[in-house]
Amino acid sequence: MRGLDDHTYRKRTAALKAKRHDCWLCGDPIDYTLPWKHKMAFTADHIQPRSKGGHIYGEIRAAHRSCNSSRSNRVTTVTTAPKTALRW
Ligand SMILES: [Zn+2]
Fold first, then answer.
1. What is the extent of the structural domain holding 11?
2. How far apart are the CA of 4 and the centre of ligand 1, in A?
3. CA-CA 20 to 30 A from 10: which of 16, 45, 46, 75?
4. d(CA 88, ligand 1 centre) in Å
5. pLDDT of 75 strictly over 70
6. What pLDDT sits at residue 47?
């Protein structure tokens, strides 16, 4: 027996998957045709609710399996690729 909200979680995961988002951790697109065991397959990453405006059940975002698992090992800040302004 898993958690009480397992059904809800799976519904939310399915809804998220249907949106075909890119990986929110690395920003690369996710191949949604990959088997779920694949390291680059889609996983629902559970975001901890923030002190401000956090959702009760927490928010989930699309992530690669490898990105998701590497994130759980250590707390990392979201790396947004720094865009250096082009100088003409
Ligand atoms: Zn990724």
1. 4-71
2. 29
3. 75
4. 32
5. no
6. 77
